[in-house]
Amino acid sequence: MEAPRSLTAVLPESTLLHIMRNRALPDNVAKRAAEEITARLPRGWRSKLTLDARRGNRRADALLEIRAPDGARGVIIVEAKRLLEPKDLPAVLAQLRPFVGKDARAVVAAPYLGFRTRERLREEGVGYADLAGNVWVTLDRPGLLIQAAGAEKNPWREERPARSLKGPKAGRIVRALCDFRGPIGVRDLATRAGTDPGYVSRVLDLLEREDLIKKEGRGPVLEVDWRGLIRRWAQDYSLLGSNRTGSYLDPRGVDSFRGNLRRADARYAVTGSLGASRLAPIAPPRLGVCFVDSLEPFAGDLGLRPAESGANVILAEPFDPVVYERTWEREGITFAAPTQIAADLLTSPGRGPAEAEELLSWMAGNEGAWRS
Predict the structure, then answer these.
(1) Which residue among 41, 105, 158, 256 is the one 20 to 30 A from 54 at the CA level?
(2) How high is the pLDDT of residue 22?
(3) pTM here?
(4) What are the backbone angles phi and psi of residue 169, rounded to the nearest 5°?
């Protein structure tokens, strides 16, 4: 199979912007998406593209016929969109279902498809191809899987009031939405998050577009997909990137570090594997991670040694004091809120993401234990 390549390497940005603004955008995007798919077909496979085609009594933006070397034939129905947000997916999926059969699969094409949109499409068994090189296409007959990762950020995104969940204010809003049940209004949320209602509204607009919250008009937030929201936050927040961290060695191991925390006088909150292991253990923790107000004094009090390699403890000065909110204690040790631990694990190296998924499963089955 040929090495994946993105159309961003083939077409200049000015041409792509022209495509996006052109009234004939569906045909253009459908054609470009078909080229993205065709470029990744195995050697000996062929394709034939028909724009503005019909399949039965239904119209499709494009039909891409795929033929394997043995003559087996399949069809990819391409539906092109100028913009597709997660909240728009139910209508699009209903539109595409009549097209799908044993020898046919639907593919959504767009200038750019965000991570959550791509994730939801895969869950529904619908393929995608965007002009930033993100491709996922499957066929049962002939058997085919094409998968390629392109840009994770929209290269041509128009300016919007809120485009990410970076920064302390966004982090406090995420924590409040996850930790407290709805309904919750904008002003109440602003008070809980310690920010202004205008900024909260802009963040809620972003989350509503990404189908992470449910609200009616300008009314309160009624429902929150807290698991999806934590995963979405982890795209813009990271344990090692958003906090000032230091690596240390406890010569006696992680168990010694955990025991020494019981005599710590300074404020702290345990996160990462050590925190998750108290709720949803997978394996004995090999790394202790802890939020503290000041790295060096805390490390000195607990007898930790700075370590460039072989560290078994990470101390982190937090991006915001929200990491100390809704902490809980067990056996004399203070732990961060499960929502914070999950986000930190999702962005941790090694087995951190797997431990995060185990913790999220525990949280789903014990919502009353951590959410109020």
Answers:
(1) 41
(2) 39
(3) 0.66
(4) -60, -45
* Residue 63 belongs to domain spanning: 7-148
Q: In this structure, are 290 and 326 located in the same domain?
A: yes
Verify that 204 and 275 share a domain, yes or no. Answer: no
Strand 328-330, strand 127-130: pairing: unpaired
Integer-rounded Cα Rg, in Å, for the chain is 24
Same domain flag for 288 and 324: yes
The pair of structure tokens assigned to 154 is 């929209």
Same domain, 220 and 261: no
Chain segment 295-349, per-residue pLDDT in tens:
999 999 999 999 988 899 999 999 999 999 999 999 999 999 999 999 999 999 8
Instruction: Give per-residue pLDDT as tens, 199-225.
Output: 999 999 999 989 999 988 788 999 999
Burial 328-346 (b: 16+ CB within 10 A, else e): beeeebbbbbbbbbbbbbb
The 10s digit of each residue's pLDDT in 268-305 is 999 999 999 999 988 889 999 999 999 999 999 999 99
Helix axes 226-233, 168-179, angle to 10 degrees: 160
Q: Which residues contact 222 (CB under 8 A, 6 or more apart)?
A: 182, 183, 213, 214, 215, 216
**Beta-bridge mates of residue 314:** 247, 289
Would 162 be classed as within a structural domain?
no
Residue 153 lies in a domain: no
What is the layout of strands, in order, in the sheet containing 244-249? 305-306, 244-249, 313-317, 288-292, 268-271, 333-335, 328-330
- Of 316, 325, 359, the closest CA to residue 226 belongs to 359
The number of folded domains in the chain is 3
Residue with tokens 């997916």: 89
The answer to whether residue 123 is domain-embedded is: yes
Q: What is the 3-state secondary structure (H, E, C) of 23-69?
A: CCHHHHHHHHHHHHHHCCCCCCCEEEEEEEEEECCEEEEEEEEEECC
